[in-house]
Amino acid sequence: MNLHDFSYDLPQELIAQDPLEDRSSSRLMLLDKNTGEIEHKVFKDIIDYLNPGDCLVLNNTKVIPARLMGVREGTGASIEVLLLKRRENDIWEVLVKPGKKARPGDRISFGEGKLTAEVLDVVEDGNRLIKFYYEGVFEAVLDELGQMPLPPYITHKLQDKNRYQTVYAKYEGSAAAPTAGLHFTKELLEKLEQKGIIIANVTLHVGLGTFRPVKVENIQEHHMHSEMFVVTQEEADKINAARAAGGRIICVGTTSLRTLESTTDENGIVHADSRETDIFIYPGYKFKAADCLITNFHLPESTLLMLVSALAGRDNILNAYETAVKEKYRFFSFGDAMFIHD
Predict the structure, then answer these.
(1) pLDDT digits (tens, 9 = 90+) for 8-17
(2) Is the C or the N end of the chain the one with fewer CB within 10 Å?
Protein backbone atom coordinates (compact mmCIF):
# COMPACT_ATOMS: atom_id res chain seq x y z
CA MET A 1 0.00 0.00 0.00
CA ASN A 2 1.53 3.28 -1.14
CA LEU A 3 1.61 6.72 0.42
CA HIS A 4 -0.08 8.41 -2.55
CA ASP A 5 -3.08 6.09 -2.06
CA PHE A 6 -3.99 8.41 0.83
CA SER A 7 -3.70 11.72 -0.95
CA TYR A 8 -6.44 14.28 -1.64
CA ASP A 9 -6.57 17.93 -2.73
CA LEU A 10 -7.36 20.45 -0.01
CA PRO A 11 -7.74 24.17 -0.69
CA GLN A 12 -5.73 26.16 1.87
CA GLU A 13 -8.75 28.26 2.84
CA LEU A 14 -10.54 25.21 4.28
CA ILE A 15 -7.92 24.76 7.03
CA ALA A 16 -9.65 26.10 10.17
CA GLN A 17 -7.56 28.78 11.87
CA ASP A 18 -9.77 29.55 14.86
CA PRO A 19 -12.12 27.54 17.09
CA LEU A 20 -15.85 28.28 16.81
CA GLU A 21 -17.42 30.25 19.64
CA ASP A 22 -19.75 27.36 20.48
CA ARG A 23 -17.84 24.07 20.50
CA SER A 24 -20.84 21.93 19.62
CA SER A 25 -22.02 24.04 16.66
CA SER A 26 -19.40 22.69 14.25
CA ARG A 27 -20.66 20.63 11.33
CA LEU A 28 -20.91 16.86 11.58
CA MET A 29 -20.61 14.50 8.65
CA LEU A 30 -22.20 11.09 9.22
CA LEU A 31 -20.45 8.32 7.29
CA ASP A 32 -21.87 4.80 7.21
CA LYS A 33 -18.73 2.64 7.19
CA ASN A 34 -20.56 -0.25 5.49
CA THR A 35 -22.39 1.57 2.68
CA GLY A 36 -20.40 4.79 2.38
CA GLU A 37 -23.65 6.79 2.69
CA ILE A 38 -23.12 10.40 3.83
CA GLU A 39 -25.39 12.77 5.79
CA HIS A 40 -24.75 16.35 6.95
CA LYS A 41 -25.66 17.48 10.47
CA VAL A 42 -24.50 19.79 13.28
CA PHE A 43 -22.29 18.30 16.01
CA LYS A 44 -24.84 18.63 18.82
CA ASP A 45 -27.07 16.27 16.73
CA ILE A 46 -24.68 13.45 17.70
CA ILE A 47 -27.06 12.68 20.57
CA ASP A 48 -29.63 11.43 18.02
CA TYR A 49 -27.21 8.83 16.66
CA LEU A 50 -26.04 7.30 19.93
CA ASN A 51 -28.22 4.69 21.63
CA PRO A 52 -28.76 3.94 25.33
CA GLY A 53 -26.14 1.36 26.31
CA ASP A 54 -23.55 2.62 23.80
CA CYS A 55 -20.18 3.44 25.39
CA LEU A 56 -18.44 6.69 24.48
CA VAL A 57 -14.68 6.48 25.13
CA LEU A 58 -12.94 9.82 25.83
CA ASN A 59 -9.22 10.58 26.10
CA ASN A 60 -8.90 12.76 29.21
CA THR A 61 -5.30 13.84 28.62
CA LYS A 62 -4.51 17.53 29.18
CA VAL A 63 -2.29 19.57 26.87
CA ILE A 64 0.59 21.31 28.57
CA PRO A 65 1.78 24.74 27.32
CA ALA A 66 4.75 22.89 25.86
CA ARG A 67 6.21 25.59 23.61
CA LEU A 68 8.93 27.68 25.23
CA MET A 69 10.71 30.62 23.63
CA GLY A 70 14.18 31.23 25.07
CA VAL A 71 17.68 32.46 24.39
CA ARG A 72 20.96 30.63 24.42
CA GLU A 73 23.09 31.87 27.30
CA GLY A 74 26.31 33.47 26.13
CA THR A 75 25.15 34.36 22.62
CA GLY A 76 21.56 35.59 23.15
CA ALA A 77 20.46 33.63 20.05
CA SER A 78 16.72 32.89 19.97
CA ILE A 79 15.77 29.28 20.50
CA GLU A 80 12.45 27.44 20.60
CA VAL A 81 11.96 24.35 22.78
CA LEU A 82 8.97 22.02 22.49
CA LEU A 83 8.45 19.58 25.37
CA LEU A 84 7.73 16.07 24.07
CA LYS A 85 8.09 13.63 26.94
CA ARG A 86 9.09 13.79 30.59
CA ARG A 87 11.86 11.21 31.07
CA GLU A 88 12.34 11.67 34.82
CA ASN A 89 11.70 14.54 37.25
CA ASP A 90 13.14 17.64 35.53
CA ILE A 91 14.68 15.84 32.54
CA TRP A 92 12.63 16.10 29.35
CA GLU A 93 12.95 14.95 25.76
CA VAL A 94 12.41 18.03 23.61
CA LEU A 95 12.42 19.26 20.05
CA VAL A 96 14.68 22.28 19.56
CA LYS A 97 14.62 24.86 16.74
CA PRO A 98 17.20 25.60 15.43
CA GLY A 99 18.83 22.36 16.55
CA LYS A 100 22.38 23.50 15.78
CA LYS A 101 22.13 25.96 18.65
CA ALA A 102 21.58 23.23 21.24
CA ARG A 103 24.66 21.12 21.82
CA PRO A 104 25.35 19.12 25.01
CA GLY A 105 26.53 21.51 27.72
CA ASP A 106 24.69 24.53 26.25
CA ARG A 107 22.39 26.45 28.57
CA ILE A 108 19.10 28.11 27.63
CA SER A 109 17.23 30.82 29.53
CA PHE A 110 13.46 31.42 29.45
CA GLY A 111 11.47 34.31 30.88
CA GLU A 112 14.57 36.32 31.79
CA GLY A 113 15.94 33.49 33.89
CA LYS A 114 12.75 32.33 35.66
CA LEU A 115 13.46 28.99 33.99
CA THR A 116 16.80 27.73 32.72
CA ALA A 117 17.85 24.48 31.07
CA GLU A 118 21.00 22.56 30.24
CA VAL A 119 21.26 20.37 27.14
CA LEU A 120 22.37 16.89 28.29
CA ASP A 121 22.34 14.77 25.14
CA VAL A 122 21.22 14.36 21.52
CA VAL A 123 18.84 11.40 21.08
CA GLU A 124 16.75 9.75 18.32
CA ASP A 125 15.60 12.01 15.45
CA GLY A 126 17.85 14.82 16.68
CA ASN A 127 15.68 15.45 19.73
CA ARG A 128 17.46 16.69 22.86
CA LEU A 129 17.43 15.65 26.49
CA ILE A 130 17.47 18.74 28.67
CA LYS A 131 17.33 19.36 32.41
CA PHE A 132 15.30 22.29 33.76
CA TYR A 133 16.21 24.48 36.75
CA TYR A 134 13.67 26.73 38.48
CA GLU A 135 12.22 27.80 41.81
CA GLY A 136 8.81 26.60 42.96
CA VAL A 137 6.58 24.20 41.02
CA PHE A 138 7.53 23.34 37.42
CA GLU A 139 3.91 23.24 36.19
CA ALA A 140 3.27 26.75 37.55
CA VAL A 141 6.41 28.12 35.87
CA LEU A 142 5.46 26.38 32.61
CA ASP A 143 1.92 27.75 32.78
CA GLU A 144 3.34 31.28 33.07
CA LEU A 145 6.02 31.03 30.37
CA GLY A 146 4.79 28.34 27.95
CA GLN A 147 2.50 28.63 24.94
CA MET A 148 0.06 26.06 23.60
CA PRO A 149 1.84 23.95 20.95
CA LEU A 150 -0.54 24.59 18.05
CA PRO A 151 0.11 22.63 14.83
CA PRO A 152 2.17 24.51 12.20
CA TYR A 153 -0.82 24.85 9.84
CA ILE A 154 -2.55 27.12 12.41
CA THR A 155 -1.06 30.58 11.95
CA HIS A 156 -3.53 32.63 14.03
CA LYS A 157 -2.70 33.34 17.67
CA LEU A 158 -4.93 31.46 20.12
CA GLN A 159 -6.76 33.99 22.32
CA ASP A 160 -7.85 31.51 25.00
CA LYS A 161 -5.59 28.59 26.00
CA ASN A 162 -8.61 26.56 27.09
CA ARG A 163 -9.94 26.36 23.53
CA TYR A 164 -7.12 23.91 22.67
CA GLN A 165 -8.25 21.76 25.58
CA THR A 166 -11.22 19.41 25.92
CA VAL A 167 -13.75 20.26 28.65
CA TYR A 168 -12.94 16.91 30.30
CA ALA A 169 -9.11 17.24 30.18
CA LYS A 170 -7.68 15.95 33.45
CA TYR A 171 -4.16 14.49 33.35
CA GLU A 172 -1.35 16.71 32.05
CA GLY A 173 1.11 15.31 29.55
CA SER A 174 0.15 15.97 25.91
CA ALA A 175 2.04 18.00 23.33
CA ALA A 176 -1.14 18.19 21.21
CA ALA A 177 -4.88 18.07 21.88
CA PRO A 178 -7.06 15.03 21.12
CA THR A 179 -9.00 17.33 18.82
CA ALA A 180 -12.14 15.23 18.18
CA GLY A 181 -13.03 15.91 21.81
CA LEU A 182 -12.97 19.70 21.32
CA HIS A 183 -16.56 19.55 19.98
CA PHE A 184 -18.06 18.41 23.28
CA THR A 185 -19.50 20.78 25.87
CA LYS A 186 -20.26 19.81 29.46
CA GLU A 187 -23.98 20.26 28.70
CA LEU A 188 -23.83 17.89 25.73
CA LEU A 189 -22.01 15.24 27.79
CA GLU A 190 -24.66 15.56 30.53
CA LYS A 191 -27.45 15.08 27.97
CA LEU A 192 -25.71 11.99 26.59
CA GLU A 193 -25.49 10.48 30.09
CA GLN A 194 -29.16 11.31 30.73
CA LYS A 195 -30.03 9.41 27.55
CA GLY A 196 -28.24 6.32 28.91
CA ILE A 197 -24.95 6.54 27.05
CA ILE A 198 -22.07 5.20 29.15
CA ILE A 199 -19.02 7.45 29.29
CA ALA A 200 -15.61 5.84 29.85
CA ASN A 201 -12.26 7.60 30.12
CA VAL A 202 -8.82 6.48 29.00
CA THR A 203 -5.61 8.52 28.94
CA LEU A 204 -3.14 8.71 26.08
CA HIS A 205 -0.58 11.52 26.16
CA VAL A 206 -0.42 12.71 22.57
CA GLY A 207 3.10 13.16 21.22
CA LEU A 208 4.15 14.87 18.03
CA GLY A 209 4.70 11.46 16.44
CA THR A 210 0.98 11.56 15.64
CA PHE A 211 1.66 14.42 13.22
CA ARG A 212 5.04 13.34 11.87
CA PRO A 213 4.83 13.02 8.09
CA VAL A 214 5.13 9.58 6.56
CA LYS A 215 8.34 9.66 4.52
CA VAL A 216 8.34 6.14 3.06
CA GLU A 217 6.48 5.22 -0.13
CA ASN A 218 5.49 1.80 1.25
CA ILE A 219 3.45 2.76 4.32
CA GLN A 220 4.16 -0.57 6.05
CA GLU A 221 7.76 0.60 6.49
CA HIS A 222 6.65 3.62 8.56
CA HIS A 223 7.47 3.47 12.27
CA MET A 224 5.15 5.20 14.74
CA HIS A 225 6.58 6.99 17.76
CA SER A 226 5.48 5.57 21.09
CA GLU A 227 3.03 7.34 23.40
CA MET A 228 2.14 6.64 27.03
CA PHE A 229 -1.37 5.43 27.84
CA VAL A 230 -3.33 4.40 30.93
CA VAL A 231 -6.52 2.32 31.11
CA THR A 232 -7.74 1.68 34.67
CA GLN A 233 -9.60 -1.46 35.73
CA GLU A 234 -12.74 0.56 36.49
CA GLU A 235 -12.88 2.03 32.97
CA ALA A 236 -12.01 -1.31 31.32
CA ASP A 237 -14.89 -2.91 33.24
CA LYS A 238 -17.30 -0.20 32.00
CA ILE A 239 -16.33 -0.78 28.37
CA ASN A 240 -16.46 -4.58 28.67
CA ALA A 241 -19.88 -4.45 30.38
CA ALA A 242 -21.26 -2.19 27.65
CA ARG A 243 -20.05 -4.57 24.95
CA ALA A 244 -21.39 -7.64 26.78
CA ALA A 245 -24.81 -5.94 26.96
CA GLY A 246 -24.81 -5.30 23.20
CA GLY A 247 -23.75 -1.63 23.24
CA ARG A 248 -21.43 -0.15 20.63
CA ILE A 249 -17.94 1.07 21.57
CA ILE A 250 -17.63 4.57 20.14
CA CYS A 251 -14.18 6.15 20.38
CA VAL A 252 -13.85 9.92 20.51
CA GLY A 253 -10.72 10.54 18.48
CA THR A 254 -7.98 8.39 17.01
CA THR A 255 -6.05 8.50 20.30
CA SER A 256 -8.88 6.81 22.24
CA LEU A 257 -9.17 4.25 19.48
CA ARG A 258 -5.42 3.49 19.40
CA THR A 259 -5.45 3.15 23.19
CA LEU A 260 -8.27 0.59 23.17
CA GLU A 261 -6.81 -1.37 20.27
CA SER A 262 -3.49 -1.53 22.17
CA THR A 263 -5.02 -3.15 25.23
CA THR A 264 -7.82 -5.34 23.88
CA ASP A 265 -7.31 -9.07 23.35
CA GLU A 266 -8.45 -11.22 20.43
CA ASN A 267 -11.76 -11.92 22.21
CA GLY A 268 -12.59 -8.22 22.39
CA ILE A 269 -11.89 -7.92 26.13
CA VAL A 270 -10.30 -4.62 27.21
CA HIS A 271 -7.60 -5.02 29.87
CA ALA A 272 -6.36 -2.47 32.40
CA ASP A 273 -2.83 -1.43 31.42
CA SER A 274 -0.31 1.40 31.67
CA ARG A 275 2.54 1.50 29.16
CA GLU A 276 3.68 2.93 25.84
CA THR A 277 2.14 2.04 22.50
CA ASP A 278 3.38 2.55 18.95
CA ILE A 279 0.40 0.83 17.30
CA PHE A 280 0.02 1.78 13.62
CA ILE A 281 -3.41 1.13 12.12
CA TYR A 282 -3.88 1.09 8.35
CA PRO A 283 -6.20 -0.73 5.90
CA GLY A 284 -6.22 -4.48 6.48
CA TYR A 285 -6.21 -4.06 10.27
CA LYS A 286 -8.81 -6.14 12.12
CA PHE A 287 -10.45 -4.05 14.86
CA LYS A 288 -10.80 -5.72 18.27
CA ALA A 289 -12.47 -2.97 20.31
CA ALA A 290 -13.78 -0.01 18.35
CA ASP A 291 -17.10 -0.14 16.51
CA CYS A 292 -17.46 3.55 15.63
CA LEU A 293 -15.35 6.71 15.71
CA ILE A 294 -15.94 10.43 16.16
CA THR A 295 -13.03 12.21 14.51
CA ASN A 296 -11.94 15.36 12.68
CA PHE A 297 -10.76 15.64 9.08
CA HIS A 298 -7.08 14.71 8.78
CA LEU A 299 -4.08 15.75 6.71
CA PRO A 300 -3.42 14.09 3.34
CA GLU A 301 -1.00 11.13 3.50
CA SER A 302 -1.12 11.10 7.33
CA THR A 303 -1.22 8.06 9.63
CA LEU A 304 -4.58 9.37 10.91
CA LEU A 305 -6.09 9.27 7.43
CA MET A 306 -4.79 5.70 7.13
CA LEU A 307 -6.45 4.81 10.44
CA VAL A 308 -9.89 6.09 9.43
CA SER A 309 -9.47 4.33 6.06
CA ALA A 310 -8.90 1.08 7.95
CA LEU A 311 -12.19 1.56 9.81
CA ALA A 312 -14.44 2.80 7.00
CA GLY A 313 -12.62 1.69 3.82
CA ARG A 314 -10.25 3.88 1.81
CA ASP A 315 -12.71 4.53 -1.03
CA ASN A 316 -15.47 5.56 1.40
CA ILE A 317 -13.10 7.91 3.22
CA LEU A 318 -11.66 9.54 0.10
CA ASN A 319 -15.20 10.03 -1.27
CA ALA A 320 -16.26 11.57 2.06
CA TYR A 321 -13.26 13.93 2.01
CA GLU A 322 -14.01 14.94 -1.57
CA THR A 323 -17.58 15.69 -0.48
CA ALA A 324 -16.30 17.66 2.55
CA VAL A 325 -14.16 19.82 0.26
CA LYS A 326 -17.12 20.47 -2.08
CA GLU A 327 -19.36 21.32 0.89
CA LYS A 328 -16.64 23.56 2.37
CA TYR A 329 -16.23 21.74 5.66
CA ARG A 330 -13.52 23.12 7.96
CA PHE A 331 -10.47 20.84 8.23
CA PHE A 332 -7.96 19.73 10.87
CA SER A 333 -7.63 20.58 14.59
CA PHE A 334 -10.18 23.43 14.88
CA GLY A 335 -12.31 22.05 12.05
CA ASP A 336 -15.52 20.07 11.71
CA ALA A 337 -16.21 16.47 12.74
CA MET A 338 -17.10 13.13 11.20
CA PHE A 339 -18.98 10.25 12.82
CA ILE A 340 -17.99 6.93 11.29
CA HIS A 341 -20.84 4.61 12.28
CA ASP A 342 -22.40 1.28 11.38
Answers:
(1) 999 999 999 9
(2) C
- Tell me the per-residue pLDDT of 332-341, one tens digit each, with 9 for 90 and over: 999 999 999 9
Give the DSSP H or E segment for 337. Answer: strand 337-341
Give CA torsion, residues 293, 28, 180, 33, to 10 deg: 20
Cis peptide before 98 (omega within 30 of 0): yes
Distance CA 3, CA 301 (A): 6
Q: Would you say the C-alpha torsion 21, 255, 251, 244 has a positive or negative sign? A: negative
Domains and CATH numbers, the chain: 3-63+161-341 (3.40.1780.10), 67-145 (2.40.10.240)
DSSP conformation class of 2: B
Q: Of 157-171, 191-205, 230-244, which range is least confident?
A: 157-171
What is the rounded distance in angstroms from the CA atom of residue 183 to the CA atom of residue 334? 9
The C-alpha atoms of residue 182 and residue 159 are separated, in whole angstroms, by: 16
- Spatial separation of the C-alpha atoms in residues 80 and 58, rounded to whole Å: 31
- What is the Cα–Cα distance from 221 to 192, expressed in whole angstroms? 41
Summarize pLDDT for 294-318 with one digit per residue, the tens. 999 999 999 999 999 999 999 999 9
Helix (H) or strand (E) holding 261: helix 254-263
pLDDT > 70? residue 267? yes
By the 8 A CB rule, do 35 and 44 touch? no
Cα dihedral across residues 242, 244, 246, 248: positive or negative: positive
Give the separation between CA 29 and CA 20, rounded to whole angstroms.
Answer: 17
The CB-based long-range contact list for 264-270 (8 Å cut-off, 24+ gap) reads 264/288, 264/289, 268/243, 269/240, 270/231, 270/236, 270/239, 270/240
Q: Dihedral sign, CA of 241, 46, 296, 37?
A: positive
